[in-house]
Specification:
The chain is mainly beta. 5% of the residues lie in helices and 47% in strands. Strands 45-46-47-48-49-50-51 form a seven-stranded mixed sheet, covered by helices on one side. β38 and β39 form a beta hairpin. The two termini are 27 Å apart.
Length: 653
């Protein structure tokens, strides 16, 4: 395929939008349409391209202009920045990889994409952003208010946010200043002036207490377990068989002498009268409201609670009121409280394999009446009369009748819709887009990654069923048609985007795959192909990661050995370097003792402009939680081994 730049097309359009169609003459008429990029419109102030096959023939380009919308001036904040509620986090695919920035209500880039992840702006005008696994805070102009030095920053609550670093957890104020230098092992956000924290005692077990907003110990860490304050009270565990409700000063309001007492909801607390016995509910004064009779009992919310009656860890869930009367019979595999007097009733898609997922119906939580039995595969809580759901085809809103709401949009695929200021954010099939309240799309994640003319990487989607989704790359601009076809056929195969996922009910796993541009320089393109295979019923899935190094001039895929001089002992040398890093660098303390035995000749690797990186699969030399243990080797350390005149090295030097 060839990409043809349309040099004159965008002139005079003042950054308007242009839609293109390409047709080929088949000897009779202009009857063959050549598919173009997936975007409906592309901006005229960007480079405009059309794609045609690298075959002789007559081609025609049709285009249409989309009128510009009236210029909208973003209101300014008090300090001269844009109002935070007018900005929305958005991911962009770039040649440096996926980066997050912020867009305006009109879909224009307001803060350039330069973050590894970006969260919504909070009511105080600050947003959490991440760079290289570290979190910081920015204001609505993009200025750093807190440098990315923390491993975690939570949402602000009562003027404080929880942060953590290598030393532990603490609180910061809305100016980004730590309210105390003290650190604890765990810290929750402020609730009614109290933040739950824990410290490990001398015996090795944790004890819980509460900080105030200044980071001082309002209540010392003396409790075996504890919950957040709500309505002036919090539940704590004094010792085995003794629980209590306390006030913010630590005074005991009520004591409960039972093997288990759950957190309060609507003035009731789940409890067990006997060790490993059935569950009932207590009033806060300690009297029994509902006798123990359930095998599981969740906290009350909105005057109702979800309970389970199945023995032996089975699923027979229902919904009860505060008198213990069943509103929804305890016959469902799942019952989800969605708020606003609505519940979702889940039944297994395959009763013999319930772990494959559920289908949901919507019911009235007051009367128990089923409102809509249309099978939904995913449901979210109600907010202002609407809930985001998806079925086998689309993601959309339902209203309180349980049926599809008049509020657009309706988007093919599985995911969620959420309100983001005046826009609606859609996270569907692992991609983000934004719509206005009329359902008009104002922005979506780009499907073309420009490299350098004539090269670019197009995103293609493969989804043969609801449990199999792959985004795979198509490299454009390779001059030789056969080489281009071979490269892209191989990338599609390596991405597992063909001949897979067609098993229907016989498919016993889910799979998601994606890609990113990891590095591009001169003629070398490095693509990261990632995947996650989850066998149904397993404790967790298994991630995979491949880095493919492609010479865009000749289509060659390089291996590790191609970087080094023929006959060099690169395997031994690299193995020694990695071994020394494991032995001497504390960041690799997670590596299993005595598991590292060196590297292989075809060790998984990737390169950038400064270094070679070698990595291992999960479980290979370290725990699953460690991910892909990766070791950086600067070129300066191995220059004597590198074939600097070789094709691989010359492809990016």
């Amino acid at each position: 395929m060839l990409r043809i730049k349309l040099n004159e097309l965008g002139k005079g359009l003042d950054s308007g939008l242009v839609q293109t169609e390409v047709w080929r003459w088949d000897g009779i008429g202009w009857n063959e349409c050549i598919p173009q990029q997936e975007e409906d419109f592309i901006r005229a102030d960007e480079d405009l391209f059309v794609t045609i096959p690298a075959e002789a023939g007559l081609y025609r380009v049709d285009y249409s202009k989309k009128p510009l919308e009236p210029l909208f001036v973003l209101p300014e904040a008090e300090e001269g920045g844009l109002r935070a509620e007018l900005l929305h986090p958005a991911p962009f695919k770039l040649k440096e990889g996926t980066r997050w920035g912020y867009i305006s209500n009109e879909g224009r880039t307001a803060i350039e994409p330069r973050y590894d992840y970006a969260e919504d702006f909070q009511p105080n005008g600050l947003a959490v952003v991440q760079r290289k696994d570290s979190s910081g805070l920015i204001d609505s102009t993009g200025r750093e208010k807190v440098k990315p030095v923390y491993s975690f920053i939570g949402p602000f609550s009562e003027g404080r946010a929880v942060v953590s670093d290598a030393k532990g957890y603490t609180l910061i104020d809305e100016k980004g200043k730590e309210v105390t230098p003290a650190r604890v092992d765990y810290l929750n956000s402020l609730h009614e002036g109290r933040a739950l924290f824990s410290k490990q005692g001398t015996s090795g077990s944790s004890r819980y207490g509460y900080w105030d907003a200044q980071g001082k110990e309002a209540l010392p860490a003396v409790y075996e377990d504890a919950g957040d304050f709500q309505d002036g009270k919090a539940l704590v565990k004094i010792k085995d068989g003794e629980f209590a409700l306390i006030d913010p000063l630590g005074a005991v309001v009520h004591t409960y002498n039972y093997p288990f007492v759950g957190y309060p909801g609507d003035g009731l607390l789940a409890f067990q009268a006997e060790e490993n016995g059935k569950y009932g509910y207590l009033r806060t004064d300690g009297t029994i409201a509902i006798q123990p009779q359930f095998t599981a009992a969740l906290p009350f919310s909105g005057g109702r609670a979800v309970i389970n009656t199945a023995p032996d860890y089975g699923n027979a869930y229902g919904l009860i009121d505060k008198q213990g009367k069943q509103i929804i019979p305890a016959t469902y595999y799942e019952v989800l409280q969605l708020g606003e007097d609505r519940v979702a009733l889940g039944t297994p898609l395959d009763p013999a394999q319930p772990y494959r997922g559920s289908r949901y119906a919507i019911a009235d939580a007051v009367t128990g009446r089923i409102l809509s039995s249309h099978p939904l595969l995913g449901v979210n809580n109600y907010q202002n009369g609407l809930a985001s759901v998806y079925d086998a085809q689309n993601t959309y809103f339902i209203d309180k009748s349980g049926k599809r709401a008049a509020q657009p949009p309706v988007i093919p695929g599985s995911g969620t819709l959420s309100f983001s200021g005046s826009l609606i954010r859609a996270d569907v099939d692992l991609r983000t887009s934004y719509y206005d309240r009329t359902g008009k799309q104002v922005w979506r994640q780009n499907g073309v990654v420009p490299l350098r003319p004539p090269y670019s990487v197009l995103e293609k989607k493969y989804k043969p069923n609801k449990d199999y989704l792959v985004y795979y790359p198509v490299v454009e601009g390779i001059a030789i048609t056969d080489v281009s076809r071979e490269v892209n056929d191989k990338l599609r195969s390596l991405s597992l985007a063909e001949g897979a996922g067609m098993g229907g009910t016989a498919q016993d796993f889910s799979y998601t795959g994606d890609f990113a541009v990891a590095f591009f320089r001169k003629n070398l393109l490095v693509l990261e192909l990632s995947g996650y295979r989850f066998p149904f019923g397993a404790a967790h899935g298994m991630p995979t990661k491949l880095y493919e190094h492609i010479n865009l001039r000749n289509g060659r895929f390089y291996r590790l050995s191609d970087l080094f001089k023929p006959g060099s002992k690169y395997v031994q040398k690299l193995g020694e370097i990695v071994g020394k890093q494991i032995a001497n660098d504390p960041q690799y303390s997670y590596v299993f003792p005595d598991t590292y035995k060196g590297i292989t000749a075809d060790q998984p690797f990737y390169v950038d402009e400064d270094a070679l990186y070698l990595y291992f699969a999960p479980y290979e030399i370290a725990p699953y939680a460690a991910g892909f243990p990766t070791f950086r080797i600067p070129y300066a350390e191995i220059m004597g081994l590198i074939s600097t005149e070789g094709e691989f090295w010359q492809s990016f030097h």
